[in-house]
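Could someone model iron/sulfur cluster with this protein?
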Amino acid sequence: MGFGVYIHWPFCLSKCPYCDFYKEVKKNVPQEEIVAEYKRELDFYYQYTSENIVSSIFFGGGTPSLMKPENVAALIDYVAGKWKTAPEIEISLEANPNSDYPEMFADLRRAGINRLSLGVQALNDADLRFLGRTHNLKQAYQAIDGVLQNFDNHSLDLIYARPQQKLSDWEKELAQAASFGMKHLSLYQLTIEEGTVFARKGIKAMDEDAAGEMYLFTEDYLADKGIYKYEVSNYSRPGYASRHNLLYWTGQDYIGVGISAHGRFCFSGFKGNLEQKQRDQKISPIYYASTYNCQLEELSQAERAEELLLMGLRLTDGIDKRLFAENCGLDFDGFIDRERLKYLCEAGLLVDTPQNIRATREGFLVLNGIIEQLCP
Ligand SMILES: C[S@@+](CC[C@H](N)C(=O)[O-])C[C@H]1O[C@@H](n2cnc3c(N)ncnc32)[C@H](O)[C@@H]1O
Ligand code: SF4
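Reply:
Sure, complex below.
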């Protein structure tokens, strides 16, 4: 079992018109105060997870590349000073091409980051402007060079299925993206989220059929280049799937600090000042969902099972039924609505075997609908 630590840095230089992630645009961020706050949150979660071995740390945002590298290093050191860490620990950070200075990537590498995820979003100037990005293509190329020079493990984010985007336009960008030599690509179809500038302007998402065609094209095109889809929007060269994100999709434990972070973990061992009641409860495993400011909520077996289903079907390999039962204490075939499952298999959207259940290529096009139908 892996165990991950997510650190959320909510600050950005500007707000992108499509983005509904929690973020703040602030000039003078009191970084040291925030880092001290994060350490207090880490102390809290340590009480519940002290026996775990950290297999990944992920700095996500917002724009964590706006953090001073010494603060990134301080948080990595703090985690490594409390928990045991796995020898092959993956330590990722999301960077924007607009937050760089000449030595930024080298400094982040020295701070302990060993996987860099770069949010490029488009590979032509007109679409970068449309997406409200504050970097241009030249800066994107410079940042890609910087990442490749300083890291062995890297990822690139692009948003596609933009309104008016033609399949042939996307093919050109995809060809470039595949040619950089990045180990991993996160490719998201543009969604128009309520409350964003795009929604207010009435911008419409691409129609489903055209977007579906792009989706299947993307999968085939990249597979041909040795880059394989392993999750709805994530593709990697063999052995380079994001270990941290796999924790979410396979129902393993993680904690999260920062304003819009959350966690899911099982009480692994007691090393703090918890109340007797909580110590007693340790006899049977307690599964917690955590949110900002150390708020904990116990999850029932059914809630846990639903989450495992929701997350697991996102993976190309689908859900391992044995792990499902280990993770929530419920038998998969007993939990699922068998009639609906049969119908979805007959419709060619799911494959169900005694060992696992997974979406087919066509199933991925309507995954949200499948999940809605399956949850009892
Ligand atoms: C947490 S965000 C931010 C990462 C980083 N701040 C950046 O802007 O590159 C992670 C990714 O979600 C994707 N994303 C955000 N909003 C989206 C939307 N409305 N539609 C599709 N993808 C979106 C972008 O590709 C982005 O890189
Ligand atoms: S896409 Fe990234 S940079 Fe843009 S507002 Fe969202 S988190 Fe900030």
